Every structure is written in structure tokens, then in C-alpha cells.
Amino acid sequence: MTHEQLTIVIILAGVFIFFLWGRWRYDVVAFSALMISVLSGVINSEDAFNGFSHPAVITVIAVLVISNGLAVSGVIDRIAHIIVPPIKSLFLQIFIMSSFSAALSAVMNNVAALALLMPATIDSAKKVKRSPALLLMPLSFGSILGGLITLIGTPPNIVIAHYREKVSGEPFSMFDFSPVGSVVAVSGVLFLGLVGWRLLPHDRQAKSATDDLFDINDYLAETIVKEGSGAIGKKIKDIDEIADSCDVRLAGLIRDGKKILRLTKTRVIKEGDVFILKAGPKELDTFSHKLGLEIKGGEYDRAMLSNEDVTLQEAVVSADSRVIGRKIGEIKLKSRSALNLLGVSRQGQSINNELHKFIFRPGDVLLLQGDTDSMTKSMDRLGLLPLAERGFNIGKRRHAWIATLLMVGAIATAAIGISSLTVSLAIAALGMIIFNIIPLRDHYNSIDWPVIVLVGSMIPIGGALETTGTTDLIASGILNMSEGYSTFAVLAVLFIVTMTLSDLMNNVATAVMMAPIAVSLAHSLNSNPDAFLMAVAVSSSCAFLTPIGHKNNALIMGPGGYKFGDYWRMGLPLEIIITVVALPMIALVWPL
Questions:
Q1: Alpha helices for 468-528 (secondary structure H)
Q2: What backbone phi and psi angles, to 5 degrees, belong to 493?
Q3: What pTM was computed for the model?
Q4: What's the pLDDT tens digit per position in 444-478?
Q5: How far apart are CA 95 and CA 75, in angstroms?
Q6: Which domains, and CATH codes, for the chain?
Q7: Cα–Cα distance between 528 and 122 in angstroms, integer?
Q8: Which whole-number Å values give the CA distances from 465 to 7, 20, 77, 578, in the listed order?
Q9: Which residues pair with 258 in a beta bridge?
């Protein structure tokens, strides 16, 4: 092994370890690895940023913009309202929703597809008094499976398609993935509806997770500002500071019998005012004693905390939310975003005490109180996704048709060869802006920049694997271990290794690293490189064993009340089925 080969292997081992550790976000890890590769001389400095101008990066950006256009135009909301009704048959409900999420993910980003369908799915579960845990994991897995069907369904397909252009002169087309991906997706969805949900623990099947996340009555109270109270004459901002120190949330005020939920910082407290508080018994006692307040008993519900101007919203922390790894005090929810955090749920367990110490993670569910008009914009800015349907925007009906036509037009022009898929998608993304489907101010917010940095950083590293001869070295090692076995067996080893890596690290990084190894293996065996690349494309997108393997798995963890170990129960047999189905299909469609 040469010095350069040893260096790139050490860098990739570091990437794997840091991805698995999860302390640093994957885009930071990938970019750091790129810089280390340049400093160590493995990648030439003039080639360091070539990945960011790669067609795969442009394609991913265009797909993300188009996906957001389809979302904000209301296209998906209208279809979901029809496709995801409450159904008493659990098999039918899972089958319909998983199939729809798979179909949707075939033409748009699968994370966006899940985010759009999750509120309708939870609402559907509530109406038939069914645990959302039975539906959300199949929904997530269905959306991942659907990404296998087309080139634009998932970023690994885009990476593999453009890598094929590098090695053979022509990329995979839009529907080259469909013969294998469709069969795998259908097999997976049938498993989810017939068997998959039965493998979840019984307590997850029985528990109505979203109904039990936040028990308002247990933690809501009223306190009266009596004569001589230390609160008299203080401003709301002063009361908030004292409340925060006592781990109490001020949710509103009653004055002269009128409920006031939109509290300005400068409002002055008077004798006879009644505070509406969310706090545990101990915290409530501390706060009341400190300000000389009288605790008032009663029965409460969520209506107490909302009116026509102020609303309550449950939201889930997305995988790329800016609140991840931070405490409430650091993000200043109330002062910067006009949001009042009333409760947090993690893995189905409500957390109401010591919220000032709480550090946010992906999949956490938050109970937020805020202005009705600005709630959506504030959540979007923070990377929080709603768990309740927002309703249809009638004014966007024209935009829905335009967004659909732009998407269909992009696929059609690429399919008949008028332009490349990258150019067609870029034009459709531009159309989303020209027709004001996506306001110009929100254009860049619709792009998942961590993914773009990841792809742009990993492409040169993948290239370094080839230029240093490391791919041939790894391929030789695999062939030596597989000596005496058939080409199909080597393909199976590649498939299983890639799928395992994808469960532990980002799927795009997995595809970038494994693609050159796959081609090297194919050449060494005098076999069809397309079959080996297709094996990497399918297996790198199938991450079902852990919540960290795919963003969608992390997204459903809180709303479904899942534990870390729940994923392999349904995911392991699904991955076995995918392996058994995909490998013969690959060999059939792309003869070895």
C-alpha cells in the first residue's frame, strides 16, 4: 500500500467514525475530510472544489427546489386528503399510505414527501383510534423505497447516474432505475402492510403516541396576583425571566375576565391579574412563593392556551433543524421567533421539567404556542415540521397546476431527449420562481444545503479513491476473499456491505465511496459495470435498521414514540427481502 493509498484510507475511516459518532453534522465532517485530503496532497488544490460544479450537485438542488414548489403549491395536500382517509382495515391503511408515499418519493425528495404526509397520517390514525406508531414507520420506509424507482427519487441515484457517465460516457436515464426499483418497492410495501407492523413491540402498537405526548391538564395552572404580590408593577419581560429561572412557562394572562395570550414584553402586571402557567407542581410552588401569588385550582384543556390570534402547534425537529444540539436559552425562541415552548416529548416520553437544560435532538416533538399568522414562518425558519394539517390554501389552486406541469414537462423533455435531465430540472426549478410558486425570498431556504455540501465534498474524495489506486486495491481484497465464488456471489457481497454501511452513515457518502469500488470489481471480473452500479444505487438507499441511517427514520422517532431498537425489528426482515428480490432483478435487467 502506497503512502497516498494509506492516507485516503485513514481519511475515509475517519469519515466513517465521525458519521457514526454523530457529534458533528455530516456536511462538516465531509468538508473537513475534503480539506484534510487537500492538505495531505491526496487531492490537488485546483481540483478541491470541482465537486460543487458537478452535474449531480445541480440536479440535487433542482430536485429540492421543485419538491418544495410541489409542496407549497398545495398539490400534495389535496391528493393526500383524498388518498389518506381513515380506514378501519390496518392492512389497507398501511398499504395505501405506504404506496402513496413511495409513488410520491419517486418524483420528489423523499424527506419532503414524508414531511407532507405525516400530518395527514397522524390525523387518520386519531380518527380510527389507532396508534400512529403502526403507520409512521411503514410510511417512512415506503418513502425510502419509492426513492429507488427513478433517478430523482433519492440523491444516491443521482450520484450513481452521473458516475456512470464518467466511466461509460452516458448517465443512467430517468427510468433506468424503475425495473429493479419498482419490484423492490412493491415487495417492500406488501411486507410492511402484511407483516411489518406486527413486529413492533406491543406497547408501541397499543399506545396512541400523539394523544399522550402532552397532558395539558397535569401541568396547566392559574395563579392570582393578589394584594402585595411582588409581580405588581413588573413588566412581562421581567416575569418571563423569573419564570425561566423557576422552569415555568408563562402561557397567557387573564385580566378583568378577558384572556390575553399575545403578551407584549412591556405590558405591566396589575393586582387581580391571573397568570396562565405551564409548570410542574414543585416549579409552580417555587414561582408562586417567589412572587407572592395565589394558586387557583381547576380543570384545563388546550383551548385555554389558544384563541383566534394565538395557536398551539405540535412540531417535530427535522434532521437539519438549526435547534439541534442547542438549549432553549441559546436559540431564544420567545424573543427571536415569537414562540413559547410549553413542552417536549422524546421517544414518546413527555418532558415537562427542567426544560432550560434540555438539548434538542432530531425527532423531538415540541409543543409550541405562538401567533397564528407567524407560526408557520417561524417553524420553517427553525427547521420544525408541523404534526397537524395546515389546511388547503385555495389561493394557490392555479399554482398547483403550474407546479405539476413544470414537473411533468421536465421529465418529458428529458425522456424524449430534448435536453439533459439536469437542464430540464433546472429550467423547471427556475419556473417555480418565475411563476412565484416559491417566493424569491424563500428560494434558498428550500435547498438542503448540508446535503449539497456533503455531495460537493465527497465527489473529489471519491475521485481520489480512484486516482490513488485504492479502489483497485479494495476490489482485489474483496476478490481474494471471494475466490472460487461466482460473479453473482461477489455482487451479493457488494450489495450487503453497501447496505450495512448505509445503515451506519449517510447514504450519499456511501454511494460516492462504493461506486468506484463497484466498477473496479466489475472490470476485474470482466462483468457488466451497470449491474454493479445498480447494486450500489439500490443498497445505499436502503437504510432501515437505525434512526440515524436516513433522515426520514429520525423524523418519525418522536411522533411515533419509537425506541432506537424498534427499527431493526421491522427493518432487518425488510432488508433481507430487498436483498433476495433486488439481486436476481439486477442480474435479469442488467445481465452480468
A1: 470-481, 487-504, 507-524
A2: -60, -45
A3: 0.83
A4: 777 888 888 988 999 999 889 888 888 888 888 88
A5: 21
A6: 3-32+75-208+448-589 (no CATH), 216-301 (3.30.70.1450), 310-386 (3.30.70.1450)
A7: 45
A8: 10, 21, 44, 28
A9: 255
